[in-house]
Design a protein that fits this description.
It is a single chain. It contains seven helices and 18 strands. The chain is an alpha+beta fold. The strands form five sheets. The protein has a six-stranded mixed sheet with strand order 8-18-14-9-11-10. Strands 1, 5, 15, 16 and 17 form a five-stranded mixed sheet that branches. A hairpin with a 2-residue loop joins strand 2 (48-54) and strand 3. The radius of gyration is 24 Å and the shape is globular. The chain starts with 15 loop residues before the first helix and ends with a strand. The relative contact order is 0.22.
């Protein structure tokens, strides 16, 4: 009697819809911004978005097919730009050699293939998560970059806005750090432009964090916090420090670009402060996959599909995302630095 080999794709994954659903349901690699849920995802039906600037706030308008009625905007103090959503494809392959050998006890070759497919999809999901973190962190700072580290456009330059920065002057022992923090808080509040928030968070480089907690003005406050807020001999208390109304968090995010070069997501000695709990300030727009069957459909965060080689030699695994993170109130994200 011949053994019946189960098709490893019967349980889901062979079609574009099933594979896309499977990769989006896989456990997320929780990058810091993803964990915070700062950027909400919103699917759009086109591969471009139109951003309108008015009174310092950026509004994303729907792009429409050629010939459709256009959106109308006021001419007063406004400007518009159209931005193409970056296309981010990433492929992998399963060869016969990858599953060649004796199966594990009680497992068939089909089971091995399904397990390998899951591992491949999980790795692909992680790579896309890291890419999204990289793009969202740069968008928070007002810049759109691709995976090679190339600046696609600068929101401040495109719309004639000036980034707000606060110099903490850590090198001067008499600097009023509390006053600097209040300056940052007021700048965030002034540039919410009708938006709401619940708190202010700051992601800072290790150097900035070390200089903050070791400054003459903040040393005692940090010692008190580390002694009462945690058990310093058992817990890592260096990661965050609430001070004067802002939660400062050490952020060491680094990515390896497609060029092979490593890039810090926050430049050494700097930080970025931004509002938490906003309704419509931070959004990542996602367009449909670059496939005829999905044209004009609402975009998803990530797409995946697989194709069997017609001669049964390999399986191609293809994934793609078309995302563009936007900080609609770029002046509400304050650059932190120290000039000495």
């Amino acid at each position: 009697m011949n053994a019946i080999i189960r098709n490893p794709f019967d349980a889901g994954g062979y079609s574009l819809a099933e594979m896309t659903q499977a990769i989006n349901f896989l456990p997320i690699l929780w990058t810091r911004l993803g964990e915070m849920g700062l950027f909400a995802f919103e699917g759009v039906t086109q591969r471009t978005v139109i951003i309108e600037q008015g009174d310092g706030a950026l509004n994303v308008l729907p792009s429409v097919p050629l010939g459709a009625p256009a959106t109308v905007a006021s001419r007063q103090g406004r400007s518009m730009r159209s931005f193409v959503l970056p296309w981010i494809p990433h492929d992998d392959k399963i060869l016969a050699a990858d599953i060649q050998g004796v199966p594990a006890f009680g497992a068939s070759g089909a089971d091995q293939l399904a397990a390998l497919m899951l591992r491949k999809l999980t790795l692909i999901r992680r790579k896309h998560a890291q890419t999204r973190e990289y793009m969202e962190m740069n968008a928070l700072r007002g810049i759109a970059k691709d995976g090679a580290g190339t600046t696609l456009f600068n929101y401040f330059t495109e719309f004639g806005l000036a980034q707000i920065a606060t110099d903490f002057v850590f090198g001067t022992t008499t600097t009023n750090i509390q006053g600097k923090v209040r300056e940052v808080m007021r700048a965030v509040e002034d540039n919410l432009l009708g938006e709401s928030m619940t708190s202010i968070h700051a992601l800072v480089s290790p150097l900035f964090f070390d200089r903050l907690i070791s400054h003459a003005v903040t040393q005692e406050a940090y010692k008190f916090y580390s002694a009462t807020g945690a058990q310093p001999l058992r817990q890592d208390v260096r990661r965050s420090f609430p001070f004067a109304g802002i939660l400062f968090e050490e952020y060491r995010g680094t990515v390896t670009l497609s060029t092979g070069a490593a890039e810090l997501l926050i430049p050494a000695g700097e930080g970025i402060a931004f509002p938490i709990g906003t309704i419509d300030t931070f959004t990542t727009y996602g367009g449909p996959a670059n496939l005829i069957s999905l044209a004009n459909t609402i975009g998803l965060p990530l797409y995946a599909r697989q194709l069997m080689d017609e001669k049964d030699r390999w399986i191609d695994i293809m994934s793609e995302a078309s995302i563009l993170p936007v900080n609609k109130r770029p002046r509400a994200a304050i650059r932190l630095f120290s000039s000495n």
